[in-house]
Amino acid sequence: MELIQVEHLSHLYHKDMDHEYKALDDINLTVQEGEFVAIIGTNGSGKSTLAKHFNALLLPTSGICRVAGMETSSEANLWKIRQHIGMVFQNPDNQIVATLVEEDIAFGPENLGVPSEEIKKRVTEALQVVGMEKYRKFAPHLLSGGQKQRVAIAGALAMHTRCLVLDEPTAMLDPIGRAEVMATVKNLHEEAGITIIYITHFMEEAVMADRVVVMKEGQICDQGTPTEIFTQVEKLKKLGLEVPLATEVAAKLRERGISLPPYIITNEELAVCLCQLK
Amino acid sequence: MSIEVKNITYTYMAKTPFERVALKNIDLTIEQGEFVAIIGHTGSGKSTLVQHLNALLTPTIGSVLVDGNDINTKNEAAKTARRKVGMVFQYPEHQLFEETVYEDIAFGPHNMGLSEELVENHVKKAMEFVNLDFAEYKDRSPFQLSGGQMRRVAIAGVIALNPQYLILDEPTAGLDPVGRKDLFKKIQQIHKKEKIAIVLVSHNMDDVAALADRIIVMNHGEITIDAKPKQAFSQIEKITEAGLAVPHMTALLEQLKQKGLAVDTTPLTLSAGVDSILAAIRRRK
Lengths: 278, 285
What we know:
- Chain A: It comes from Propionispira arboris.
- Chain A: Belongs to the ABC transporter superfamily.
- The complex is a heterodimer of chains A (278) and B (285).
- Chain A is α/β, with parallel strands linked by helices and 278 residues long.
- Chain A contains 11 helices and 10 strands.
- In chain A, helix 6 (175-192) links the parallel strand 7 and strand 8 (195-199).
- In chain B, 42% of the residues lie in helices and 22% in strands.
- Chain B has helices spanning 46-52, 76-83, 101-111, 116-129, 134-137, 147-159, 177-194, 205-211, 229-234, 236-241, 248-258, 270-284; strands spanning 2-12, 20-31, 35-39, 61-66, 69-70, 85-88, 165-169, 197-201, 214-219, 222-227.
- In chain B, strand 1 (2-12) and strand 2 form a beta hairpin.
- In chain B, helix 3 packs across helix 4, helix 3 (101-111) packs parallel to helix 6 (147-159) and helix 4 (116-129) packs across helix 6.
């Protein structure tokens, strides 16, 4: 079933002013329920602008964005849409509103008027899913960056969100924090069946997705499985993007006469192929 | 010419129930012309440390000397010494405040009491450094630029102060690969051409391995490794213990080794890594 449908979506910033700017240009995209989609592209390619349409933070200048069949441009749908789609942004410190972890997670459901017993239950569940039960009574500023991002994710889960949109959630985190967030996202997708839309500049993270969407100058210029996308080393470099290190090393080894299959995008795949070489 | 950190200890909120020792007995000398990277997990003390390098924080115990002058004293020499150290914070674009790009970059030089002509020179040079065309951008509002451009304006504001030591705290967080490479290229240029010392705080081990000649690893408020990149990243246990990861190349080579390919795991660059793999394949034949 389609969770998100975007049809001929364009978005203009500063419309009708002299610095009018077309950030999205005729985007068509469908995200199925339960899918894990990574969006990559340079700064200014429109990734974040697109993501903000998924929960009606931005509305299309023209075209349509539907979430679970509801058009985002109709104000009557707003609350329902925002329960469907949870957002997690880059800077964890800008997303935390309460003085205790449990209160922060309860903030969303409280605003929905969920009964307090039910909220308690949801907070417990959400903390369990992100592995933060121990920190229920902690002040958020005492947490590490990775833990704060997991609290932000738990906040979305407590809304019983069906889809998480994460906009560079690891950009500010140290290596451990990055690993924590990635493991949490993977787990949500695989175990809880939550739809994931994941924007990143780190290609090693995009490799986890079922599908990679490549954006350029407000348009979708390519999409496919991680293997299909990342094995096009030259094309991605021309776009100003990187490929996973294993792909790059495999390409260099091929140049030097080592015969390797074309599909290598992870260290594991490279290791297996190199060890099978005769 | 150097920054000397002499046995400093720093305690946050001393004499309160929230007292926490963030730095313990740090001794460190950064010579002019060095390219040093400081790495460590969130809360390891690296930001606290760099904030001591231009007297934003005063050590609880110990002292910091810039070119021989104690920067935490109250005299002209200390003031001049502090000005030699430029600091680019995380997300510096959040600190833009002026109405035009020119005025924002000129704020520091104006405060230094320079003549209008000199200020303009500094601003021009700084904008050239960050690849922003002077004529095109000087009168634009910094708030109507893209994120990457705003970042560059903010960095130009620090460059315009002509620092001898430049400290950058995660300068490329959130920039795309090309923006990241561009900025680092510029930093390397200014480092080589002007002999400015660079202190880079980063979570990106690949960048750190590629750029710095010296790696300092912080953990629990102490320096646990101070070595050249190859030596630093070969201490995998210590790196992991410090809550960090090794560069992607090291991780890749380690994995190959575990799978039975006898590679040298010390290379950090793409070409050296590829050579190492080829050598291992040939040895096996």
